[in-house]
Amino acid sequence: MPRFAANLSLLYPDLSFPQRIAAAAADGFDGVECQFPYDWPAAELAARATESGLPWVLINTPAGDWQHGERGLAALPGREAEFRRGVDTALAYAHTLGCRRLHVLAGLQPPGVDRSRCLATYADNLAWAARQAADAQATLLIEPLNARDVPGYLLRTQAEAHRWVQTLGIPQLKVQMDLYHCQISEGDLTRRLQHDLPTGRVGHLQIAGVPDRHEPDDGELNAPYLFTLIDTLAATAGQASPWIGAEYLPRRGTEPGGTSAGLGWLRAAREALASRPVL
Ligand SMILES: O=C(O)C(=O)[C@@H](O)CO
Ligand SMILES: [Mg+2]
């Protein structure tokens, strides 16, 4: 059965970041993930998760100057030293948090720089970072992002991401398949999941409603159907229960209790999964 992680960078915006961990536990999530934990001491985040009984499932490596629009460093020529320092920082956090998945963002193609130069940098940096992750018994993830939200991002499709994983051939490098981005960029989610999940190259999944990135309970995605499909594909392939990160902007925004009030989709998912035939 899939396990659900609350993405604490987006959920529970009415609470302080460390308080969000206990809120996710109270709401029945199985784990927590976030984009950037680096404004808080790792030891505090680890202690809060232990108190709440939830594992840390995923963090991103530092992604450059986020406030000024940067979206990762892995494919940016000339930023290699900063990228590698960021990976070291992320690995230190991951060690303290007991977290085994690190998402590394590629970045936006800089004006005047050839795409081929960016991709050569990406190849070198990913290979280096995946080896560091392997030494730390962690998995490095790459995630295609849609062009509406992140114009100019250097990794766009699932097929491209899978090609990187196959080309670099490092078992600790995998794809983070965010169904929200995939639906916007490519659609055809059933066939993509049927094609990609059995390969074993998908190391993490995420979801949000499409088109507005709110709760996955209306709009284009049929979440209970997708969760059941994922569950069936993973079980058939003999894989461990996949993690699915709930990475969305709660419809009720910062209204107190707004995230919890929007979790009908999680209860519906558990019911749909519990009632599916055992394989
Ligand atoms: O935007 C997403 O989707 C993510 O998973 C982030 O971690 C990266 O922008
Ligand atoms: Mg995502």
From TrEMBL:
The keyword Zinc does not apply. Keywords: Isomerase. The keyword Isomerase applies. SUPFAM superfamilies: Xylose isomerase-like. Transmembrane segments: none annotated. PANTHER family: HYDROXYPYRUVATE ISOMERASE, ISOMERASE. Belongs to the hyi family. This is TIM barrel protein. It comes from Ideonella lacteola.
